[in-house]
Every structure is written in C-alpha cells, then in structure tokens.
Amino acid sequence: MASNQPAPETSSPFRPAAFGDENTTRGEWNPTEDSLRPVRGRHRVAKQRGLARSSTVLGVGVIAAVGAGGMATAQGKPPVSISLPDSVKDNLPDPSSLPGVGAFMSGGSDADDTTAVTASAPLTSAGITATEAEQGATDAGEALRARILQQAEQQQSGAEAEARAAEESAAAEQAAKEAAKQQSAAEAKAAAEKKAAEEAAKAKAEAERLAKLAASYSLPTSSYTITSTFGQAGSLWSSGQHTGLDFAAPTGTPVKAVHGGTVKSAGWSGSYGYRTVLELDDGTEIWYCHQSSMDVTAGQRVNTGDTIGRVGATGNVTGPHLHLEVHTADGSGIDPMSWLRSKGLTV
C-alpha cells in the first residue's frame, strides 16, 4: 500500500531541476519542499526520469552498435535532425562517459576531427577486404555486388573456357579421325598399288620366263584344228573319256618334238596306231599317236622342233589327226593344253 509519509532523506548533494525551469541552479535538496507532493507521484516522476535516461542511453548504444556492425549505412543520405525536449536533454548523461560514443558526440576539436573522419567514411565497412579497400570500395553493399559480379564473370569465363576446350577436343578428335581415315585410304591405295605392281612384275617375270621357255619348246604340229580336248566324255573312247588333245590336220603334216629329249619307243600300239613316245629330261613323256609314218627310232636323241613323224589316221580314228598325250614321271596323264601353255606356247 502506498504511504503518505514523507520520503526519507537522501545523501545526494543535489537534485535535478524541475521540468521547464531552465534558470534554476542546482543546489542541495530540500526534503520539505519535495514532501509537499505525494510520495506516489514523486516516485512515478523519478521512475519516468530514470526510464527516460535509460531509454536514451540504450538508444544511443543501439545506434552506435548498428553503425559499427555494418547493418546500415547513411552514406549518400541527407542528415536528419533530432530534437529533444529540454527536460530530457538536461537529464542526458555526459557523452564523454559513454565508451565509444563520447568522441562521436563530443563538441571539442578532437571530436570535430573524429566526427569529420567518421562522416567521411561509411557507417559500415563490414565485409570489405583489404584489396577492395585499396581499390576504393567503401560500401559493403557495393563491394558485395562487385564481388558477385566478379564471381559471375569468373564462372562465365570458366564455362566459356570449358566450352572452348570441349570444342577444341571435339575438333581434334574429328581431325584425328579424318587423318586416320585418310591414312587408311592412303595405305589401302599404296597396298593396292604395291599389289598391282607386284602382280605386274610377276606377270612380266612369268612372260619373260615363258618367252625363254617358248624358245626351247615347240607346238607338235602346224595348220591344225583342235577337235577334242582332255577329259571330254564320249562313247568313242574305251575309257569313256578322252585322254589327250586332238590336232586335226591333213595326212602327212610333219609332227615335231615339243622339246629336247630321247625317243623311248617308236612303233605300232593297237588303237593308238603308230605311236612315238618321247621322254624329256625331267621324266615327262609325250605320246604322238595315229601317225602315218615315223622318222625316229627308240634311243634316238632329238632336239626341239625336230620332225619325228607324220600326221595320219592309223588305229582307232575317224579321220587324220595327231592324238597327243602328256604323262608325268609317275605315269599320270595330265591336260596337254595346260602343259603346253605352261611352257609359253599358245595353243
């Protein structure tokens, strides 16, 4: 419960002046004068006075903290004047007693210098690096914006560099493929040319060989017509197929030695009529059949192109012709046309 008793005496040597009394000088406190008012009212005034002072101090501290922490900036904005009632202004604490704020609000010369420096600088510089400060950045927002733009440019540059690298890699890969393709084509062309050259050289060598052989070999007769070939089937032959090569020619046409060799036999041979067997130096036997006459005897040595008999129609025949057979050293019969061609002769 509230009491109407006078407030106890205090040891304070002075009391603040009443609101609106600017001419009242501070002196000792008169308890009798103050006790004329109710204690409740005086206590309320005292609480209001203390609350005003605390709020003011807190507000100044918040302003200082906000400015120091970089939460806001007053750069580029016009100054705002703040007016306070005289009753509040008279009860504000001494600015010099507030740490970090006295120099900011002091009116002395040092305070002017500090205030000038503070005014020239932004209220916030948090987040500004030393490099940015050297480059002239004084605002945290501008510094952040510049930093973001720089990072974006770096990312864009990196992306463009990666794209260029990818394009260069793709181009290099494509060029390598084209080069490999061209190299493969060149190698294939070179291989084909080489093969063609080798085949041409081989054919030339074979032609030269055959030319040399042809000089040492001869056709068995001249002015002829091929009427039957080797392996030809028919009832005219006892084996069911023809075993030689038939050169149809008039009776008496000379029969020649196809190569140098020795006469192995010369005489009558049944269905072959008059037959001469010429053995070459490699063991190959040449059979001349159906002759009308023979000009050599067994054991006689003959050379290429020598006449050994005459075309006839003796034995099992239907007309005059030379039946020619070729047997290898082991006795096997082979195609006379192929054998003659292998010796460079044109049949």
Automatic annotation (TrEMBL):
<dbReference type="GO" id="GO:0004222">
    <property type="term" value="F:metalloendopeptidase activity"/>
</dbReference>
<feature type="region of interest" description="Disordered">
    <location>
        <begin position="151"/>
        <end position="186"/>
    </location>
</feature>
<feature type="region of interest" description="Disordered">
    <location>
        <begin position="82"/>
        <end position="115"/>
    </location>
</feature>
<feature type="region of interest" description="Disordered">
    <location>
        <begin position="1"/>
        <end position="48"/>
    </location>
</feature>
<dbReference type="Pfam" id="PF01551">
    <property type="entry name" value="Peptidase_M23"/>
</dbReference>
<feature type="compositionally biased region" description="Low complexity">
    <location>
        <begin position="151"/>
        <end position="160"/>
    </location>
</feature>
<dbReference type="InterPro" id="IPR016047">
    <property type="entry name" value="M23ase_b-sheet_dom"/>
</dbReference>
<protein>
    <submittedName>
        <fullName>M23 family metallopeptidase</fullName>
    </submittedName>
</protein>
<dbReference type="InterPro" id="IPR050570">
    <property type="entry name" value="Cell_wall_metabolism_enzyme"/>
</dbReference>
<feature type="domain" description="M23ase beta-sheet core">
    <location>
        <begin position="241"/>
        <end position="336"/>
    </location>
</feature>
<dbReference type="InterPro" id="IPR011055">
    <property type="entry name" value="Dup_hybrid_motif"/>
</dbReference>
<feature type="compositionally biased region" description="Polar residues">
    <location>
        <begin position="1"/>
        <end position="13"/>
    </location>
</feature>
